[in-house]
Hints:
Distance between the termini: 35 Å
CATH superfamily: Alpha/Beta hydrolase fold, catalytic domain
Largest sheet: 9 strands, mixed
Order of helices and strands: EEEEHHEHEHEHHHHEHEH
Structural class: alpha/beta
Radius of gyration: 17 Å
CATH class: Alpha Beta
Helix content: 25-40%
Number of domains: 1
Number of helices: 10
Shape: globular
Strand content: 15-25%
Amino acid sequence: MRELIGVTPPELNIAIDHFITSDGTRLVWREMGQANHEKARPVILLHGLFSNAEINWIKYGHAATIAAPIAGRGRRVIMPDFRAHGMSDAPHDPACYPPDILARDVEELVAHLGLADFDLGGFSLGARTAVRCVVRGMRPHRLILGGMGLEGLAGMAERGSFFRRAIAAYETAKRGDDVWMAVQFIKTMKVDRVAADLLLQSLVATLPVDLATITMPTLVVCGSEDSDNGSAAALAAALSDARHVAVPGTHMSSVTFAAMGEAMAAFLSA
């Protein structure tokens, strides 16, 4: 049974639902809006590491911007919480974290919802996961990569090691340490550190040669002060059909500004 939550504007509602994956993990997704135009495909949005759908897509209005029925082209926006994040299960069994498990979860969500024609987007870890889905054979009509650069896709081992160090330093990190801000975010988000550490070990790098699989129109949208994952412009240049849009902010702040959702909505409606 779905739970409906009133949001602003009042004519929009968020439905919360879940399904059970093939390994028995309960995954929750939120859904807003509905397609009311024949060309308005549903869009799946994937959140960033240690965040969730509520924080990345709903709190600052991005999902509402995309879902809003402007000119009769409102969209159905589907926003899962990754395993070990948000309202989804955070199992402690290492067997629940094989390589590319997040991409597999998205594949199973698509199958569960019976989606054949859809768009796919993500921010940071969500962008990495969206790319992994495409590399594994998923063919969204359009792709959005937020907060991601060329180096970030190939450098997953280094980024994963950094966040694993942050988890390990949860009790001992001091202001000025390179992991200090990451530790504070982990604390704020009440991250399940056991599950998060296992998840980080499951992430798979995407090599430059793999980018040839990304042939659909792609938006690379990144904060003008965000270099956490390398060069967004270089990523767009490496893809066969991509455009780069710079929006205000750093990696942490860009998702709080309306410009991020506006760029995504404009791309999907073009």
